[in-house]
User: Fold this.
Amino acid sequence: MEAIILLGGPGAGKGTLADFLKKQTTYIHVSTGDMLRAAIQAGLAVGLEAKAFMEAGQLVPDSVILRIIEERISRDPAENRFMFDGFPRTIEQAEGLDLLFKKQGGTVKHVFNLVVEREILLKRLTSRRICKTCGAVYHVTNKPPKKEGVCDLDGGEVYQRADDSEATILKRLEVYEKQTAPLIAYYQKKGLIRDIAAGGLAAETDALVLKVLTA
Ligand code: AP5
Assistant:
């Protein structure tokens, strides 16, 4: 088992990059944010546990996250390759992943650190819209759906995420700096960090990452 990790602040473009890599590589996209939102929509216990944390812009407890990751990666055969989006998000989660991979024989190949200025993150997130049915990501000016409020792919309702209000975005940025940014040093020590300038066009970010993966 092998994994790459997409690391970056809220709005850095992890989901957008994952969408591209899903089509270009054999990595399986595992987004803890998407998994939690799906659990909330389905009314599952794990969703109920996570909902209040997410709406407040706080992190969901490490034990919950490590449990859903273990369940997810155990579902696929050992030869699979995973692309983690939004996981790990704390040192405890990174250590938990190391333990899990030690047990199951997995390795982390690269950690892509998407570097974007704070002002750009704020602008991107207040303008983001999502399809309620398939999760396709839009942007009110950079990437609007053809018909306002309607997903191009499946006609689903395009909405604004509950945690994309300005106050909650500021909280998420603060949480990122305190709890997630220390992962850069953690993975730097292991020689796995690949800094990617991700403040420009999505296609530029895509090309930089694909170049590393196909080198
Ligand atoms: P999660 O869903 O992971 O949110 P996030 O990390 O805050 O990241 P986002 O999804 O907001 O942004 P993104 O980097 O994917 O950007 P995107 O591609 O959409 O987590 C949500 C919550 O769940 C957390 O707050 C927490 O409570 C909980 N959670 C999840 N995982 C957890 C974990 N491991 N531990 C604990 N709690 C956890 O792009 C943003 C916008 O910008 C879009 O509109 C897009 O179109 C646009 N855009 C993207 N790239 C570009 C570009 N290059 N140029 C122009 N526009 C762009």
